[in-house]
Amino acid sequence: MDNYEINASLKHYFGFDQFRPGQLETINQLLSGNSSLAIFPTGSGKSLCYQLSATALPHLTLVVSPLLALMQDQLAFLSAHNIKAASIDSTASAEQTQQVMKDVRSGVTKILMVSVERFKNERFRQFIANVSISMLVIDEAHCISEWGHNFRPDYLKLPSYQQQLKIPLVLLLTATATAAVKQDMAEKFNIAKSGIIQTGFYRANLDLSVLGVTSRDKTPRLIELIQAQQVVSNAAGIVYVTLQKTAESVAAQLSAAGLNCSAYHAGLGDDKRQLIQQSFMNSNIDIVVATIAFGMGIDKADVRFVIHYDLPKSIENYSQEIGRAGRDALPAKCYTLANLDSINTLENFVYGDTPASSAIECLIDEIKHNIQNQQWEMQLYGLSMLSNIRQLTLKTLLVQLELLGVLSAKYSYFAEFKIKIIGSQSSLFAQFNSDRQVFLQQLFSHVDFKRVWGTLNFAALHEEFNIERSKVIATLEYLADKNLIELQTSQMTEVFQVNAAALENTQLVAKLSDYFNDKEQKEIERIQALVDFFERDSCLSFNLAHYFDDRQVIEHGFGVGEKMHSCGHCSACRGKVAKLEYSTLQSWPENAQLQSYLQVFLAALSAVGVSDQTHQLSCRFLAGITLPLFTKMKARKMAGFGCCDKQRYSQILQRISAA
């Protein structure tokens, strides 16, 4: 397609007369057969790059998206513009998923959206391997990079999935990429330097203010700021907090002040969250008080303010979250109510994700003792509870073992297949010839039916009739596709090939511990960088653009006369430099009380068979950091759990070590 045809498609599908910066350049890259990395600010139309390209490509465009809400938002947009798109996700019924798969196979669907975890699904892998795919799109692509702020270990496998599925074209999309993250992403997918399209990061319509506020004054100041925004009309806004309980309490106080708002967090049910999100999008709710569970993919143009009630997790998170304001290019306010009171909470998230050396050793021993035919199988929840490593951290650890050549992922499968026959077994058999009837009879002879649903015993079926698992699954999928059975799958099991020699490396545990300790240190430094950014005495907009390697602003500034590096619309440019401090000096429990808590805790550890009673474990108990072990022993109900949650982790550890 030439530029005339591309512009005609833009008008035909989307009704737009012209492209936003970077869009046409990216689309030209893709339609010329070159993979691309597009780095555009939040709300600047990254998604249109793949949406329009997909209409011109001959086969399916497969989109990997990190959030269900993000998928649903994109699907609604595509449907409104008559572009056939669908998703395969956990909310769909068996019938809906079967229909989506039919439409993909037939070529009706041009765009299919999935989460990265879907690739672990044996049924999905078997299905997608037989589909012609023109392009792989990775949304929020910074998740690929270990240097990124939202690193998700499963994303590291996407380059190998691209190769296995022989997908010729890749498009990476993100709004937040430092120079190191940008290089890392491009290298992982062999994207040439000419394929990196980065538009300006700076948004002139956003007014950034950092306000030093004590915890006691936060809510009154918040109400004051919102009421000032709503003098003329009920302006829409988002208030970001760190914890679910804070979202609930702040929303209640805003409601009591007569403001139309609702709390939003991951602790709410799916239906409730969807209702709140839709009400906000439809302007039936003016304000959402939310954890970071809210926002990614929320394309509401008229958000007039974003207020950080608590410190964001990082500069990257801050950038993404303020980017949800003023997408209509009209002025919008971004406030941060800043103090150091929540710094320990941010740090504790990091410390809780660092596995103890003994936990890593437990995992390695578990692999060694359960190898069969050079293979090892695991189910994530059970392994997390056994090793006392959080599930996301455990995923990262397994990926590191892959990168070190200890493990190589082979495939995943559901340990349990449940079958419900629609109609009778005899009527099902009657629809096939005699040879296929024999096969079906063999298959169903190893289904243990309990009233309606039956569980298939793959091992017994293979042992008696030597029938391969792949043939069984293909048959079940066919029967489900023809509405002859309903199929349910559970107990996701991952299978790895094990390099026994690498597993026996005496330095393996130490190497992995060093990796996580280094990662921990970098994350703590990232939090300090956030504090340093908020305390800057020079232009916040310039410092933000510099952090994200915006060459246009770094080299040319903002084009406002002599003050090239002053935006004129941030608190630092107005001479209001923030100083982040603690609201009050946090008191400690008495030493005798602290020792009493620890004695009970250590006794409880002994009772559940934990002999490695480290200071780090005690520190996490006192700090109120959740761990799989603490869930198992119901630590939350024990006296002393979280009694030092207002203190910084390093100070708690120092106090325990000195006792």
Pick out its properties.
45% helix, Rossmann fold, seven-stranded parallel sheet, 16% strand, Alpha-Beta Plaits, globular, 4 domains, 659 residues
What does this structure look like?
- By secondary structure, the chain is an alpha/beta fold.
- The protein folds into four domains: 3-198, P-loop containing nucleotide triphosphate hydrolases (Rossmann fold, 3-Layer(aba) Sandwich); 206-341 and 541-556, Rossmann fold (3-Layer(aba) Sandwich), CATH 3.40.50; 413-496, 2-Layer Sandwich (Alpha-Beta Plaits), CATH 3.30.70; 591-658, no CATH class.
- The protein is built from 28 helices and 18 strands.
- The strands form three sheets. It has a seven-stranded parallel β-sheet with strand order 3-4-2-5-6-1-7, sandwiched between helices.
- Helix 13 packs antiparallel against helix 22, helix 14 packs across helix 22 (508-534) and helix 26 (615-623) packs across helix 28 (649-658).
- It is globular and about 85 Å long.
- The N and C termini lie far apart (73 Å).
- The model has no long low-confidence stretch (mean pLDDT 90).
> What is the end-to-end distance?
73 Å
Helical run tally: 28
Strand order of the largest sheet: 3-4-2-5-6-1-7
Please identify, by name, the CATH architecture of the largest domain.
3-Layer(aba) Sandwich
At the third CATH level, what is the topology name of the largest domain?
Answer: Rossmann fold
Largest sheet: 7 strands, parallel
- Find the CATH superfamily of the largest domain: P-loop containing nucleotide triphosphate hydrolases
Broad structural category: alpha/beta
- Percent helix among the residues? 40-55%
Query: Averaged pLDDT, please?
Result: 90
Runs in which pLDDT lies below 50 for 5 or more consecutive residues are none
Total number of β-strand segments? 18
Gyration radius, rounded: 27 Å
Shape: globular
The fraction of residues assigned to DSSP E strands is 15-25%
CATH class of the largest domain: Alpha Beta
